[in-house]
Amino acid sequence: MPVYRDEAVVLRTHKLGEADRILTLLTRRHGKVRAVAKGVRRTGSKFGARLEPFMVADLQLYEGRSLDVVTQAESIGSYGAEITQDYGSYTAANAMVEAADKLTEDEGSLQQYLLLVGALRSLSRLEHGASLTLDSYLLRALALAGWAPSFEDCARCGKTGEHTAVVVQLGGVVCDDCAPPGTPRIARSTVALLGALLAGDWAFAEAAGEGDRNQASGIVAAYTQWHLERGLRSLPHVDRETAAP
Q1: Which CATH class, in words, describes the domain spanning 86-237?
Q2: pLDDT digits (tens, 9 = 90+) for 72-114
Q3: Whole-angstrom Cα distance, residue 113 to residue 105?
Q4: How many other CB atoms are there within 10 angstroms of residue 97's CB atom?
Q5: Topology of 3-80 in CATH?
Q6: Where is the DNA replication/recombination mediator RecO N-terminal domain (predicted)?
Q7: Where exactly are the structural domains of the chain?
Q8: CA-CA distances (angstroms) from residue 8 to 64, 78, 99?
Q9: First vs last Cα of the chain: how many Å apart?
Q10: How far apart are CA 23 and CA 11, in angstroms?
């Protein structure tokens, strides 16, 4: 059977039998892969700890009929241990890997892989607030999937201006002429924060106030749910901290 190597993020795992585990992986070059890791639940397993959720590893696999099989695993990023020690990071990471699972197909995307690895690395190092990191990741992952929101020009007609009406179904902020009756308005500072999260402007994002962060998180959650239809099951459990780390 063909053997191949690739880097991968472990998205989720399921028990199989008494000692094995089924892994859902987002790989660098082979897209999303489902594979069996045999014997990893045994105490003496050589690479069981390297194949937990949020871990990044260099894997050797061989192709099976329905599931590939992991034969070697070398750790690249041991992010899981650090992430699970912080509740906010842990809940954010769960939402991230669930989003990555839903946004990527079998053919995968190098950009989605690199974005997820970078976000998990940032969480493990507590570089930014976990909630801000999650919101930035979701906006950028949705943009890579073809659903880039607009937080500057009107998402419907392209009119420039300082728009404060938000319609997630239309793709972001809209002008007064395009806004349906009763459209909620948000502060310009919240619109600016959303733009900073999409662009990765961390200096601006971390200077935002509690009210703007909370409002932005609600919009990101609504935008994510709209495009993923059923949304993310783990998102309501995210610990939305209000202070920078």
Answers
A1: mainly alpha
A2: 999 999 999 899 999 999 999 999 999 999 998 766 789 999 9
A3: 12
A4: 22
A5: OB fold (Dihydrolipoamide Acetyltransferase, E2P) (2.40.50)
A6: 1-79
A7: 3-80, 86-237
A8: 18, 12, 16
A9: 48
A10: 8
Give the bridge partners for 45, in sequence order. none
**CA separation, residue 96 to residues 14, 83, 138, 177 (Å):** 18, 12, 7, 35
How much of the chain is helix, strand and coil, in % rounded to 5?
40, 20, 40
Distance CA 120, CA 9 (A): 10
Q: Give the C-alpha separation, 200 to 190, whole Å.
A: 15
CA separation (Å) from 92 to 53, 96, 126, 137? 13, 6, 12, 10
DSSP structure string for 131-174: HHHHHHHHHHHHHHTT---BSSS-TTT---S---EEEGGGTEEE
